[in-house]
Amino acid sequence: MRSMIHFAAAALAVLALLSVLPAVADDAVDPVADASAFQSYFTRKFPHVKLEDFVNGPYSMNEDMRRQWQEIEQFPPYEFALEAGKEMFAKPFRNGKTYADCFPNQGIGIRQNYPIFDEKQGKVVTLELALNQCRLANGEAPLSYVKDEMAALTAYMAYTSRGKPFDIKIPGDPRALAAYQDGKRYFYTRRGQLNFSCASCHVQTAGERIRAEVLAPALGILNAMPIYRSEWSGMGTISRRFITCNSQTRGVPLDAQDDEYRDLEYYLSYLGNGLPISGPGARP
Amino acid sequence: MRTMPLSDGRLSAQSKPERGARKTMRILALALASLLLIAGGAALAAGSEAGFRAAYAAAEAANQEAGRLRDQWTTTVTALAEARKSADSGDFDHATALAKQAEALAKASIFQAESEKEAWKNSEIH
Amino acid sequence: MASTIRVRAASSGETTEVQALIQHPMDSGYVKDAQGAIIPPHFIQQLTFEHDDKTVFVANWGPAVAKDPYVKFSFKGGKKGDDLKISWVDNKGDTDTTTAKIQ
Questions:
Q1: Interface predicted TM-score (ipTM)
Q2: How far is CA B62 from CA A15, A63, A196, B114, B124, in A?
């Protein structure tokens, strides 16, 4: 009898224990936990870097580069694109409408909300995509995603949001969570003959050198976009950077604004939540 | 057998009709040999072009599969282009070698894409 | 059309520090376009800064200077409110000039 009671007590204890264990599914996605872990990884790896300084990429990693950058910022190379972008943004389409009609708050001070998960379209909409969708809706031809006008427009919109923290939302829609997870998968997946993932450079080797460049940390890496890159002698958008990163690992790039790229931007931007928009930026 | 003096002083031990027959034989033999060589050469060339076509098709198919997996390599594309260029200039042996290299690269990219389907999780920050 | 020259000049004590950013393609003549044709050379050959009718800085440039060049230098003299005249001429004979006030 006593052994039976012991047995029952043991069984009950096991059952009780099982019920308090969190029901962890193998594929449970927790962006909040991800963002927290991501931030901790970098703040622990670089304890002397202030959280908001991560958005300055290589300049937060290297003092000499920072000094050169601060000098450059007195007369920033993106100034011409910024002025051009402001003019372009104000210029009406042939039908009389403007970009302001396509965006909340006339398109001013809203960059930090992009990308958004558009539940009607069922996909991630980046700022670049939104701009071209605006053009198409108003009878204008779409712009190239990688530079020139698209860079100038996004430079201006970023500038109106300077200082505002990234505020990316993941709505309860399971497709939004799936897009976020797809972006995460892309970020960590090795590709190209050189077998690098985004993480290979921007997580594992952040702050160290690749040839003559200092690698930017992935935390806040999109906050400064679009950028004037000395290497390009000109402006480039997020699309341009994703494409060139792919070819640099000897992987054939996808098309600008393909699903994976938009999802990647969604994921990285979300992880930058709370960090200030610093765009447009200047990089080596 | 009648002997006949030749212009250089030697004595031919062959009769005229026999010499003629041997000459014809020689010509026939030469003709046959060259015919065989040409035919053989053509067969070889045709074989190597067919070989190239097969190798290139295999490489292209593998690269397309890599494309479906969203992981084509730039070096695969280059190798395919160089194979095509080599074939166009008639050097099928070299073209076949390049096509085989392209196939190897494409297969490696497929292997990478397949294994990364799970392997990426090992790098994730938790 | 807007000026191609952005300039900032600040005087402190006996020296004036000048920074200028000039919008110019600065094509060296060695670069090919996507079709393989050489992009013809188009670069600033001379950049001049004048204060008080005197040339305080002159740059003789060639194809080695990159697009949208930036220049920074200091000169003795100059005070707040003075005019600083900047002008450039390129290999095609195009020019631009602007006058800025020293701060």
A1: 0.85
A2: 52, 47, 21, 13, 29
